[in-house]
UniProtKB/TrEMBL annotation:
The active site is at D200. Its main location: secreted. It holds the Pfam family Pectinesterase. It is found in: Secreted. Residues 1-27 form the signal peptide. Residues 49-336 form the Pectinesterase catalytic domain. Acts in the modification of cell walls via demethylesterification of cell wall pectin. This is Pectinesterase. One of its GO terms (cellular component) is extracellular region. GO terms for biological process: cell wall modification; pectin catabolic process. It catalyses: [(1->4)-alpha-D-galacturonosyl methyl ester](n) + n H2O = [(1->4)-alpha-D-galacturonosyl](n) + n methanol + n H(+). Keywords: Aspartyl esterase, Glycoprotein, Hydrolase, Secreted, Signal. It comes from Buddleja alternifolia.
Amino acid sequence: MHFLKSINFTSAFILVTLIVVLDFVHGFTEKNVIDSPLLTQKMGTNRTVTVDPNGQEDFKSVQAAVDHVPNGNSEWIIIHITKGVYREKVNIPHNKPYIFMRGDGRGKTSIVWSQSSVHNYDSATFKVEAPHFVVFGISFKNTAPAVITRKMENNKSVAVFVGADKVAFYQCAFFSNQNTLFDYKGRHYYDNCYIQGSIDFIFGRGQAMFHDCELFVIANSRDEIRGSITANYRQRHSESSGFVFVKGKVYGTGDVYLGTAKGAHSRVVFANTYLSRTVIPHGWTNLSYPGSTHNLYHAEYRCHGPGSGSGNRAHWSKQLTDVDAAPFLSVDFIEGQDWLPAWL
Ligand SMILES: *[C@@H]1O[C@H](CO)[C@@H](O)[C@H](O)[C@H]1NC(C)=O
Ligand SMILES: *[C@@H]1O[C@H](CO)[C@@H](O)[C@H](O)[C@H]1NC(C)=O
Ligand SMILES: *[C@@H]1O[C@H](CO)[C@@H](O)[C@H](O)[C@H]1NC(C)=O
């Protein structure tokens, strides 16, 4: 009897412990995801228009909903894009700020176009030219096939062009075979996004933080041209441009560099990121960059995984100390506390 009681007591104790642990994990997970209800609450608006592909709601196309936003808009407006595939090019013009574009999830709402051009900007499926633009849960695709020749004037097929300040993407996905994400200028935040591409597929002179993003490389190992994940175009030390990746992972097929030099002061940092074997030991490249590598800021901090070994890295690249890395590890790098609705 005594013995049984003691068993019961032990089981009860285990059960309680389990509940406490599970509850803790649950709370922990919840706290660390920026989801659609949280963002909606942060926007504090009840101006919402809805787009659906069958024309049952306010608008049938995304662009029609954007056109409906008044020029010089100064209060948040939610454009809810219900699940479906929207086959159109979309442009958010500079005079329509404060749009929160909310999809039903990146597997459910997608904006898709197929265009290849010698100009990155012209090819883009989705262009953001207005500041204060926030997106949640949308996939952006440019499905044009890659045109790879040995000449430099390859056609491009950009999925998203970001050419304005204070733009944030949460739980979005970006797909293209060539030049996926043109982070042209301004301060940007990408949280929990999936970005797929082959050669130099995150590029431009933007100032961007990628938090916990997945970068999937579809480079073909038989191609003669070895691509890079990033091509940051920072030309002067005084420019605030730079791409910072915190947490997240890099994986894929084929071999790839983390970054190539575009401007003399190109700045790219990978911190606490998982790097698979797809990242080649040399890590960084000056291929197609004729100038000195002295002012490049190609850096890593506490990365892990089979592609993270620093032994054979390019001689100009850096493994940062805690002190060096500190300015890149939080949204302060993009002054995010001043303008982001939410961050991790
Ligand atoms: C919601 O709309 C009502 C009337 O249309 C307005 O009075 C109210 O201030 C709005 N609330 C918010 C949070 O915008
Ligand atoms: C390359 O882009 C040009 C326009 O810039 C276009 O006319 C041409 O069709 C494109 N080539 C391919 C193979 O898509
Ligand atoms: C460019 O990279 C190659 C390979 O790492 C290296 O040998 C060369 O010194 C680099 N050029 C400069 C200017 O650092």
